[in-house]
Amino acid sequence: MSRVTGTLVLAGTPIGDIADAPPRLATELQSADIVAAEDTRRLRGLTRALGIHTTGRVVSYFEGNESARTPELVEALVGGARVLLVTDAGMPSVSDPGYRLVAAAVEQDIKVTAVPGPSAVLTALALSGLPVDRFCFEGFLPRKAGERLGRLREVADERRTLVYFEAPHRLDDTLAAMAEVFGAERRAAVCRELTKTYEEVKRGPVGELAEWAKGGVRGEITVVVEGAPETGPAELDAEELVRRVRVREEAGERRKEAIAAVAAEADLPKREVFDAVVAAKNADASGPGKGKGLT
After folding, report:
1. Are β-strands 200-205 and 187-192 bridged in parallel, bridged antiparallel, or unpaired?
2. Higher local confidence (pLDDT), 68 or 281
3. CA distance 151 to 121
């Protein structure tokens, strides 16, 4: 005889406009045995806006107590409780608390379901005007400049559209780093305050967006960046070959391996890529253009 356990429900909440709340959200909030909320004060604001009251126990579940509270919630689920997880906005687990609880519930063979709702990732992607057939979500970039550049270099040749979250006070630095790694002409869109009163989508080359952001930007930010162009072998000049080698080296590959990988990508002899790297190194050593090649 199989055991009877509870159900974990991940519920999407509005990212701005309360009218975007999925119809099932109110029902689940009212009927859950336990409501785990990223911010209990925001939960109270949400229930007031929906004109409802929770009847179950409300507990906080945020980054600071996620590890400690997960076993408690799993125990309740094993005992048959219906646990509803909500975050401040959007879907739980997407750059928000939730992953640990879902993983722990799955390990215990507990049913996990969802109330689909608004998503800043998909909303920004749809509004960006950039290709949406293939994309990858990269979350928040590291705060430290060097680590941020390293993470961007890892996806410099990624052909899928890239989606990032960013804090408004770091947006100008992030866009400048993107311009450095991806090239100033790579298309992008900065989506601000989605579905809210002051919603704005600023589109253009990432270099121009970096200049625009220097003036200060407020609100919740999602950045969408065009994937790397599908450059054919004939279009790869020496400078581009060297750039690709440099990106791979800075990501941790040895130069020999990086040269071999770039040669394979470009369908070129390894010697041709090697010669381009040597020429760039010699150009750097001679003075003008220093810093654009390899050392």
Report:
1. antiparallel
2. 68
3. 19
